[in-house]
UniProtKB/TrEMBL annotation:
Signal peptide from the UniProt entry: none
Gene that this sequence comes from: pseG
Name recorded for this polypeptide: UDP-2,4-diacetamido-2,4, 6-trideoxy-beta-L-altropyranose hydrolase
GO terms assigned for molecular function: hydrolase activity
Catalytic residue list: 21
Amino acid sequence: MSEAIRVLIRADASPAKGTGHIMRCLALAEALSDRGVVPHFATREITGSLLERLIEAGYGHHTLADDSPAALLGLATSVQAVGLVVDSYWLTAAWRAAVRPGFRAVLALDDLGDRALHADLVWNPAPGADALAYARLAPDASLLAGEPYLLLRREIRQAAQAPNRPLAERQSILLTFGGSDPTGLTVPVVKRLAPALPPGIGLDVVAGGSNNALGCIRAACARFPDQVRLHVDSREMGLLMSECGLCLTAGGGTVAELAALAVPSLLAIVADNQAPAALDARARQWAAVVEARGDRAAAAEMISTKALDLWSDLPARIELSRRIAAGGIDGQGAARVAAALLDKLGS
């Protein structure tokens, strides 16, 4: 029997950096593991809840003492990793150039197109990614661009394959601003939206266990026990999404998950890198969008008002869902990315 291939995944998660990098790498790790690959995560920062998730999944985790190329290459030697996945806005082009010779193949997960990537594969599923300057930033790399390569976790794929209730029968709104909610929108939106909900409509609020404002979120949700259900570190996001009639979320990786489930959504743009995907979703009439990069109180008011308007317009929500479903996101992106990496590794 041949020895299993080992791949090192370099990503971070923190309240400031968010959890999206680790979460999409988790989807890729699942797909690699399904193919007999042994994933090892290498981090400088990781939230406690995500570390627990990696351990529960059986993936290796290693804390790097620093961000020197030597630290990563030493770890790669220790775990016998022949492949590297890098998902970071913070690691420089010089760092990437220094570590590349240590691996048979390097995959760069990228959203920005703002630096040399020194990779054999570049992943960017955003609309228009193939028009970015990757021919210059990664001249030797194969490009995995567009929606066929969306990285969706197993729980989302399973929910997408299960029969779901019609929108007209769903009696809950889902609120999730990411694992860390760095802009702090959860509390002000709960305070405005919960008391204004129609009778019998629930609000499912999802928060990460490492959210710095978790105590405030708990207190805000506890004020409305008849309307609000709080889920901390939920392992059932696929189920919560598939059972809601509307989702309020930031315009990050959750957008792809909602699209795979054809869930009508209201996207809040809270960071510059979220704007292209959110605006594309609006242009396709897949979602409504709110600009939330300004004053937090004003953003929360806009989100709550728009959410109530959308909830009261069932035909509009049904049309959003219909258009998303017609988009044809098949949920097999992680498998495609894993296969492309294994091909580069020569396995």
